[in-house]
């Protein structure tokens, strides 16, 4: 499960002397000396933020996309599972953007305009680098760039607007990126049977379909494990 081209690879043996969850404080360099450049304004929000290095036991890494329409929960899921402080490019939705984007619920006030990024280690051996894509059609060029080197994708679905997920799933199929589907269970979602969901989304029989709550860590991790298991089966069958 080594990362493909385009995946950021981390040398798991580079810091063998560190504990599994080694931390340091920003504004210090790796020798423990004060970094004189650390007092810049753009670093102020990183004060005392713990930095966790990749565990020495890690043997492989994979780039994984988290895709879906705007408001489906991509940023939430990545923030829920990430073992590092996630990178988010959330911006306040404006009237100008509202004229271009699909209308969303009034409670939705921000949206991803570039990407979300997080990291999670599974079983102490496999690191997943999670890249959340923008949900709007106008960001499709950036979406395709993010897909380069991705081993697979988790497609989030909102049953309150299944049609909104068609484009994201179609893009994955066009790019030949293996994927699994996770239905994000919103509090006001109407339950549907698996057969009905598969039929509505036109999923192939071998495409995994799970129910998750992007706000819950264990539920979101299970969705990612389902994807990884699918990718392993796909790679095994192809070899």
Automatic annotation (TrEMBL):
<dbReference type="InterPro" id="IPR027417">
    <property type="entry name" value="P-loop_NTPase"/>
</dbReference>
<dbReference type="GO" id="GO:0005525">
    <property type="term" value="F:GTP binding"/>
</dbReference>
<dbReference type="InterPro" id="IPR052705">
    <property type="entry name" value="Gliding_Motility_GTPase"/>
</dbReference>
<keyword id="KW-0342">GTP-binding</keyword>
<keyword id="KW-0547">Nucleotide-binding</keyword>
<keyword id="KW-0378">Hydrolase</keyword>
<feature type="compositionally biased region" description="Basic and acidic residues">
    <location>
        <begin position="17"/>
        <end position="30"/>
    </location>
</feature>
<feature type="compositionally biased region" description="Acidic residues">
    <location>
        <begin position="32"/>
        <end position="48"/>
    </location>
</feature>
<dbReference type="InterPro" id="IPR004130">
    <property type="entry name" value="Gpn"/>
</dbReference>
<protein>
    <recommendedName>
        <fullName>ATP/GTP-binding protein</fullName>
    </recommendedName>
</protein>
<feature type="region of interest" description="Disordered">
    <location>
        <begin position="1"/>
        <end position="49"/>
    </location>
</feature>
<dbReference type="GO" id="GO:0016787">
    <property type="term" value="F:hydrolase activity"/>
</dbReference>
<dbReference type="Pfam" id="PF03029">
    <property type="entry name" value="ATP_bind_1"/>
</dbReference>
<comment type="similarity">
    <text>Belongs to the GPN-loop GTPase family.</text>
</comment>
<feature type="compositionally biased region" description="Polar residues">
    <location>
        <begin position="1"/>
        <end position="14"/>
    </location>
</feature>
């Amino acid at each position: 499960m080594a990362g493909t081209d385009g995946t950021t690879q981390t040398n798991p043996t580079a810091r063998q002397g560190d504990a599994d969850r080694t931390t340091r404080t920003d504004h210090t360099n790796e020798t423990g000396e004060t970094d004189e450049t650390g007092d810049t304004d753009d670093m102020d929000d990183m004060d005392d933020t713990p930095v966790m290095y990749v565990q020495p036991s890690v043997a492989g890494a994979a780039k994984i996309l988290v895709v879906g329409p705007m408001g489906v929960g991509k940023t939430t899921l990545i923030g829920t599972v990430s073992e590092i402080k996630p990178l988010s490019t959330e911006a306040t939705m404006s009237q100008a953007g509202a004229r271009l984007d699909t209308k969303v619920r009034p409670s939705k006030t921000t949206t991803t305009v570039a990407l979300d990024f997080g990291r999670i280690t599974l079983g102490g051996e496999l690191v997943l680098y999670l890249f959340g894509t923008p949900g709007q059609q106008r960001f499709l060029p950036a979406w395709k760039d993010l897909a380069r080197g991705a081993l697979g994708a988790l497609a989030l679905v909102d049953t309150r607007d299944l049609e909104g997920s068609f484009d994201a799933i179609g893009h994955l199929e066009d790019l030949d990126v293996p994927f699994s589907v996770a239905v994000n269970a919103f509090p006001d979602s109407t339950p549907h049977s698996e057969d009905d969901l598969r039929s509505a989304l036109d999923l192939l029989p071998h495409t995994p379909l799970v129910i998750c709550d992007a706000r819950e860590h264990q539920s979101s991790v299970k969705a990612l494990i389902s994807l990884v298991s699918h990718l392993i089966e796909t790679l095994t069958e192809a070899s």
